[in-house]
Specification:
The protein is α/β, with parallel strands linked by helices. It has twelve helices and ten strands. A ten-stranded mixed sheet has the order 7-6-5-4-3-2-1-8-9-10, with helices on one face. Helix 2 packs parallel to helix 3. The longest helix is centred in the first third of the chain and has 20 residues. The protein is globular, with a radius of gyration of 20 Å. It starts with a helix and ends with a helix.
């Protein structure tokens, strides 16, 4: 596979900018995995969340203490705090946390399956300073309910999306995990979403971790991946803001299906506080890559002095990456795609070229 000269120049420029960001490692997004409890049991869940979890929810003030400790070192207006889970709306103190973040002048948002987002709950969240949200919807009604294991899940999620479409002043989007079952119905879903006011639609494909490792029928093959990329290109040609997630390097599709060239920002501009206190990057990354724990380490010291494995990816040049001429741009793909032994569980470029 060859890239056009224009794309190679763009990739080289993006690589240079990324290398500078690694040196500066300015924290721009901070995730809080506030719970591992969830009211669904999704077939593709990477965290294997359940209605009850052996790990108790982190006390809200424990997370807020981390925020207070980093406040002298960050621009609070430019650091986005994203509350995730599990299902964050299972907690009844999200509004309390939101108000405390708003008081400290941090923008904040949350990621949800939409099951519990009612008119009243949305109003209370907005009154607490909510800035953004993401709702997950994984296809048409049958496909989504199959993925989520609940026959009411699609309707509730779509009601939440419809509600957001009638709400002004929020940044929000819809995230869709595309599987072989849902691939051919994406055009139908596109119409439904944009008809109710969706302005940004983010799609991704399942990868073999968590429950998805046990449900291989959820994984796209090479031809299906190319079909998905072409669908996104067509949507963008229509003027609709549809993009593929930041999971991996896409070769000839780079800059055609996303707003920017590929970059894994885990540990470069993105960090997380996990439900057990671990300090990591994106919440979906294997626990072996955690860099410390808020109950025994200073978060800011960890952010500044650790995360070397995230910022220098030479260790990832093994296996299929060892002789890949595109490694300089990809650096082994997203950190969430690496197993505990450093091996890569899935290569997007290899799949697209198969």
């Amino acid at each position: 596979m060859e890239l056009s000269l224009k794309k190679r120049i763009g990739l080289e420029l993006a690589r240079s900018i990324k290398n500078n960001r690694k040196k500066i490692h300015e924290l721009k997004q901070l995730f809080w995995e506030c719970t591992l409890r969830c009211n669904l049991r999704c077939r593709h869940c990477g965290s294997a969340c359940l209605p009850k979890s052996q790990i108790k929810d982190m006390p809200a003030d424990d997370f807020l203490s981390v925020v207070d400790k980093i406040t002298p070192y960050v621009n609070n207006h430019e650091l986005m705090i994203i509350i995730t889970g599990g299902e964050p709306l299972l907690r009844d103190d999200i509004e309390y946390v939101g108000k405390q973040l708003y008081k400290r002048e941090y923008p904040w948002g949350f990621v949800s399956n939409g099951m519990l987002l009612t008119v009243d709950r949305l109003k209370s969240l907005i009154d607490s300073g909510l800035r953004s949200t993401t709702i997950s919807l994984d296809g048409n009604e049958y496909d989504h309910n199959y993925m989520r294991g609940n026959n009411e899940s699609w309707q509730r999620a779509f009601n939440a999306i419809r509600l957001l479409g009638k709400t002004s002043g929020l940044n929000w989007d819809v995230a869709t995990c595309v599987t072989p079952k849902s691939l051919d119905s994406l055009n139908e879903l596109k119409t439904k979403l944009f008809d109710v006011g969706v302005e940004s639609w983010r799609v991704f494909s399942a990868f073999p971790a968590g429950r998805a490792a046990e449900n291989k029928e959820l994984l796209l093959n090479g031809g299906q991946m190319r079909q998905l990329m072409d669908f996104i290109k067509e949507c963008r040609a229509e003027g609709k803001h549809v993009s593929y997630s930041c999971e991996g390097f896409l070769g000839r599709y780079e800059n055609d299906v996303r707003d920017n060239f590929y970059s894994c920002e885990a540990g470069v501009s993105v960090a997380s506080v996990m439900s057990n206190g671990d300090i990591s990057a994106c919440p979906g990354i294997r626990a072996v890559f955690s860099q410390g724990n808020i109950y025994k380490d200073d978060f800011w010291e960890v952010w500044n002095n650790k995360f070397q494995k995230f910022r220098n990816r030479d260790w990832a040049k093994i296996g299929i990456c060892a002789d890949c001429k595109f490694f300089r741009y990809c650096e082994g793909g997203g950190m969430h795609l690496h197993n505990a032994d450093n091996s890569l569980m899935m290569c997007h470029l290899e799949k697209l070229n198969s």
